[in-house]
Amino acid sequence: MKKYLSRLLVGVTALAAVACAQAGAIDDAVKRGTLRVGMDPTYMPFQMTNKRGEIIGFEVDILKAMAKSMGVKLQTVSTAYDGIIPALLTDKFDMIGSGMTLTQERNLRLNFSEPFIVVGQTLLIRKELQGEIKSYKDLNSDKYRITSKLGTTGEMIAKKLISKAKYHGYDNEQEAVMDVVNGKADAFVYDAPYNVVAVEKAGAGKLLFLDEPFTFEPLAFGLKKGDYDSINFINNFLHQIKHDGTYDRIHDKWFKNKDWLKEME
């Protein structure tokens, strides 16, 4: 009888340990009362800092709706993009919500939700190159200098598909764009939603937007490996808002209406 009870206690302890191990980011956020999301707030119109110092944007509003559905508050944790995965893995926040493309390389380190939007890489080029540069293929020569933001798929794609061009990356998008505006670089490689805003906001009439995407890039939320309960919750949340009108309302606010530009510096 004692052996049976001992084995039973061991089994219960093991099950408890498994249950604790399975408690994921969403469960932790509910217990804490806050959903902590790591993001680099420089990616218009997904996450950016307005002139009042507030982090706003399309992805931010989706995350606010997610936090509300959980009955918790959203806490954004500003993190440099090239260190955002290590920060997640060392528990600086619960998940990544920073316009992150779901790539196979990243998927080896993280679990991802289903995509909440699909974008693609596009080009901002110097106006003087009109007619000379018609696609990314035309830039693939050592006579051109291209730029993007470090640690992003813009950098990855530039080095992979435009490898013959000289590359210089920056810690943020605005510096990279200004390199082209000031004639120090010939092209800026980045996601279409950012470029469509940047050509107006920072272009100063000196940039052309080649708006045909030349990559397929699903953006998704990143979590630690093995956190399937949280992935399940987030995916069901995304399905809900895409069918009840919430997603369309948020999308139109940031992509069809440019009033938010007045809030920026």
Automatic annotation (TrEMBL):
Keyword Transmembrane helix: no
Gene Ontology molecular-function annotations: ligand-gated monoatomic ion channel activity
CDD domains for this protein: PBP2_Dsm1740
Main location: other
Residue ranges of domain Solute-binding protein family 3/N-terminal in the record: 34-258
Gene Ontology cellular component list: cell envelope; membrane
Keyword Signal in annotation: yes
Gene3D superfamilies: Periplasmic binding protein-like II
Compartment(s) of residence: Cell envelope
Keywords: Signal
Domain (Ionotropic glutamate receptor C-terminal) ranges: 34-257
Stretches assigned to coiled coil: none
Region forming the signal peptide: 1-23
InterPro entries: Iontro_rcpt_C, SBP_3_CS, Solute-binding_3/MltF_N
UniProt cross-references to Pfam families, sorted A to Z: SBP_bac_3
Family from the record: Belongs to the bacterial solute-binding protein 3 family.
Record's protein name: Amino acid ABC transporter substrate-binding protein
Organism: Pseudomonas cremoricolorata
Classification lineage: Bacteria, Pseudomonadati, Pseudomonadota, Gammaproteobacteria, Pseudomonadales
